[in-house]
Design the sequence.
């Protein structure tokens, strides 16, 4: 029973956004509410600063900090809240996609001025693959942004999800008055404050209550009444089941920097967001409440500091209770291992843990035994699914600059790609090695690490491809024929699955039309996902 109690307390989620929409600020405000930090600015350093894009060592330093804040946990109103941090930098997008496989829900932050941006759409696509429940927070209402109704339309259209506002803004920018809660008829009045948690809440009986006009003025009261009338007419009432199925996103408005509109969202989040439940493994579905422990590795962080060459594998616990120093079964290598210093990371502090429960993430010191996606269990042969590779956007061929170090180069590339730094594809003839990433930065990281950790010298020759598609076909003959005809754009991933590289969307359209019986998938785990373009 203790296990079930621990599970029902937990909410494991990520805050995601296009860079600059306010993810870091919102994360920080949640931590302030949770008492995990006491001053604003404490997690600011977690953000990879834009000024540093050309200097990857600087970024690595910052990434080092981000390891410390990889999971930010705190207790709030009887709940255990685990926020999984995702890197804001676009070049680390794949890291973010993988982290999303380890959460039970997300809060998506949208800037009210910019609306839905490129990365917002991509992140939402990843959420849709697992039907992850999404809450949307429209941020920066203290600034003049888009009309809230237009924003809702944009969200529905571009993110392909039904939305339901749960709070509603009264004006915005200079004349922003606050938000009205559509579910408990409260008016939360806006007071700009970067440090104080806004508490100026007025309870009103209904929208005809005369108190409202006294608080926000006649003009805004009239507009609020009209808006609410429209909302009730246009949007279905909030439906918990649809939200939990990932089909309906409740929407909140506020201003993260001003601590405004956040408490309502946090408290609603705790009420509606799902606790850890079940997860698909290749062999069967595993319930969080099963007594036996299991979990999977979704992220590996290598330390670039030559004095501390350790790696940390991040394990999401899926079922049972994890205990320090107990032997567990590594299902890929079929070895038993135990961990004597499993760690949690909380707001810049690492601490040793004795036990952890489903929904928790533990850091395991790793000397090279883990690969992204590895499963640990108490002996059962389980392989968790749902940690796919996504199509990279930049492709380069590896060139060996020192023939005497060929072995080192191969080993280095093998290991770095297992860590998830980049994806490796092999092309025939000649065993050509092609590295795929979502950002240029990874090539600097790989080159540096190959040289410093493996003593290998490499260069990368840019290729004209922009997307990889995992391919299947109705018949083997069709697949063979396609591979033969398109051999210069075919390579094999690390599991030896054939992949087609495309140069642009326009060409791809033509290829898709002409390739009868061939199916193109933008993730490696196409069997488990609906077809979604990232
Ligand atoms: P990110 O993690 O999503 O990239 O965004 P972050 O929280 O760092 O916020 C991006 C910028 O937007 C920051 O300004 C931040 O202060 C600002 N911001 C966040 N929430 C609000 C809000 O509610 N209203 C307004 N007006 N601005 C907001 P910056 O100038 O880039 O950084 P800083 O100098 O303030 O740290």
Sequence:
């Amino acid at each position: 029973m203790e296990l079930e109690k621990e599970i029902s307390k937990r909410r494991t989620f990520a805050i995601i956004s296009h860079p600059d929409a306010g993810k870091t600020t919102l994360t920080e405000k949640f931590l302030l509410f949770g008492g995990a930090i006491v001053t604003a600015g404490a997690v600011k350093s977690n953000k990879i600063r834009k000024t540093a894009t050309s200097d990857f060592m600087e970024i690595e330093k910052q990434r080092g900090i981000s390891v410390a804040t990889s999971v930010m946990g705190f207790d709030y109103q009887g709940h255990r809240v685990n926020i999984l941090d995702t890197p804001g930098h676009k070049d680390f997008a794949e890291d973010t996609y993988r982290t999303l496989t380890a959460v039970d829900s997300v809060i998506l932050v949208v800037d009210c001025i910019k609306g839905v941006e490129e990365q917002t759409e991509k992140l939402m696509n990843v959420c849709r693959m697992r039907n992850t429940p999404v809450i949307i927070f429209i941020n920066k209402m203290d600034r003049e942004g888009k009309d809230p109704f237009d924003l809702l339309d944009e969200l529905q259209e571009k993110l392909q999800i039904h939305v339901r506002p749960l709070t509603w803004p009264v004006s915005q920018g200079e004349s922003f008055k606050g938000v009205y809660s559509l579910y408990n008829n409260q008016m939360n009045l806006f007071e700009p404050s970067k440090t104080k948690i806004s508490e100026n809440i007025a309870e009103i009986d209904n929208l005809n209550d005369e108190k409202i006009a006294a608080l926000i003025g006649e003009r805004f009261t009239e507009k609020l009444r009209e808006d609410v009338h429209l909302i009730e007419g246009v949007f279905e009432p909030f439906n918990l089941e649809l939200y939990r199925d990932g089909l309906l996103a409740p929407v909140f408005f506020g201003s993260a920097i001003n601590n405004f509109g956040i408490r309502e969202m946090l408290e609603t989040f705790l009420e509606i967001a799902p606790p850890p439940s079940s997860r698909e493994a290749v062999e069967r579905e595993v319930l969080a409440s099963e007594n036996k422990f299991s979990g999977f590795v979704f992220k590996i962080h290598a330390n670039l500091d030559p004095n501390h060459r350790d790696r940390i594998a991040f394990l999401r616990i899926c079922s049972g209770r994890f205990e320090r120093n107990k032997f567990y079964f590594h299902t890929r290598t079929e070895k038993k291992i135990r961990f004597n210093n499993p760690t949690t990371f909380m707001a810049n502090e690492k601490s040793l843990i004795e036990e952890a429960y489903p929904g928790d993430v533990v850091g395991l010191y790793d000397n090279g035994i883990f690969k992204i996606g590895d499963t640990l269990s108490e002996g059962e042969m389980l392989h968790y699914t749902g940690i796919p590779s996504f199509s990279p956007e930049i492709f380069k061929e590896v060139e060996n600059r020192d023939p005497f170090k060929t072995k080192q180069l191969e080993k280095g590339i093998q290991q770095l790609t297992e860590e998830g730094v980049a994806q490796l594809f092999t092309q025939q003839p000649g065993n050509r090695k092609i590295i795929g990433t979502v950002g240029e930065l990874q090539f600097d990281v790989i080159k540096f690490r190959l040289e410093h950790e493996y003593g290998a010298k490499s260069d990368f020759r840019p290729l004209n491809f922009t997307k990889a598609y995992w391919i299947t076909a109705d018949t083997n003959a069709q697949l063979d024929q396609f591979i033969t005809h398109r051999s210069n754009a075919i390579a094999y991933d690390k599991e030896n699955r054939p992949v087609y590289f495309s140069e642009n969307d326009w060409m791809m359209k033509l290829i898709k039309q002409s390739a009868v019986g061939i199916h193109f998938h933008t993730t490696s785990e196409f069997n488990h996902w609906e077809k979604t373009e990232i």
